[in-house]
Write a structure and sequence with these properties.
Helices cover 36% and strands 17% of the residues. The chain has 302 residues and is an alpha/beta fold. Strand 6, helix 10 and strand 7 form a beta-alpha-beta unit. The structure holds pyridoxal-5'-phosphate (PLP). Pyridoxal-5'-phosphate (PLP) is lined by residues 58-59, 122-124, 149, 151, 201, 205, 229, 231-232, 252.
Length: 302
């Protein structure tokens, strides 16, 4: 009777080498993922050092060591000030921020003629920006699918505060996909002349289901502005904004590459952004605010 694997004597280095070679000979396709083993050894060695198997699909990607090292180098060797001023440390910071903004647009194939990248603390922060600034009104409505993240559900409170109608489109058990006919019928409830916002996740964080991106165009054709929650989708899928053009799209970067936390993004179509009205002002969003005059002037696009 063969020994239980747990009771086998450990192989010496030569025997291990031979066994590996025999295994690779029998299963050559195993070598096709050698790059992943290499990455694991160079960038994520802490996993094996601590004996971890880390399984993640949507929640939080792990950072690579080189990300941390490059960031430390940058911080240790450069002097950065607050952006949006004219001194050298400030312009150095502004340049990096603008480079990052341009790269985010490029990565998602979003034309800078059509889209603006607004950095936020996370996807929830981006959703709040849309929720608090969208022109909900009595004649308008907020339609969302059953399987949204709570940060998308939470926008209904902004809608309700302005007496807009809130509607939920169901998903169908057992696979929890959208009921196409029902969603089409909900989209027909569009209120012409009002502001209508439809929100859904490209990938549900609850079920993992991918919802068709074709709903973006279908909803827009019926008169809806579309808010696509891409937070769970983009860590494992490419989103091409030259093909799919939601009015608003939100994500958290730590979910893609783990570090830094505390930064996400709202990608907004310029035409849709023009509809938003920020209900307050803050540091970088204004050109000037007067205390005595009780007035403020927003930055262009603010
Ligand atoms: C689909 C989806 N939307 C929104 C969020 C909120 O992301 P954050 O907590 O980074 O704001 C998450 C987080 O898991 C998510 O999976």
């Amino acid at each position: 009777m063969p020994a239980h694997p747990a009771h086998r004597e450990p192989l010496d280095a030569d025997a291990l080498h031979e066994a590996q070679a025999a295994f690779l000979h029998a299963y050559p396709e195993f070598a096709s993922t050698a790059r992943l083993d290499e990455l694991r050894a160079t960038e994520y060695a802490r996993l094996d050092q601590a004996g971890h198997v880390y399984l993640d699909y949507t929640g939080g990607g792990l950072y690579a060591c080189s990300q941390i090292n490059q960031h430390m180098d940058l911080l240790c060797n450069e002097v950065f000030g607050n952006p949006h001023s004219t001194n050298p440390t400030s312009t150095a910071m502004t340049r990096l921020v603008e480079q990052a903004r341009a790269y985010v647009l490029e990565f998602f194939h979003a034309s800078p003629d059509d889209y603006v990248a607004v950095f936020t603390q996370n996807a929830s922060g981006a959703l709040k920006l849309v929720g608090e600034s969208y022109p909900f009104e009595v004649a308008g409505q907020y339609l969302l699918t059953f399987d949204n993240h709570n940060s998308v559900n939470g926008i209904r409170e902004f809608a309700r505060a302005k007496d807009a109608r809130v509607l939920y489109a169901p998903v169908r058990p057992p696979d929890m996909r959208l009921d196409d006919d029902k969603l089409d019928a909900f989209l027909d409830y569009v209120r012409p002349g009002g502001n209508n916002l439809f929100a859904y996740p490209a990938q549900s964080n609850f079920t993992g289901v991918h919802h068709s991106l074709a709903w973006i165009e279908r909803a827009q054709a019926k008169g809806w502005d579309v808010l696509l929650d891409a937070a769970a989708f983009v860590p494992t899928n490419r989103l091409d904004l030259s093909r799919w053009q939601p009015d608003f799209c939100v994500m958290s970067f730590y979910k893609i590459f783990g570090y830094p936390t505390g930064i996400g993004c709202l990608l907004a179509r310029k035409t849709a952004l023009a509809k938003l009205h920020r209900p307050w002002f803050a540091g970088g969003t204004i050109t000037v605010a007067s205390v005595q005059g009780d007035r403020y002037y927003l930055q262009p696009g603010g």
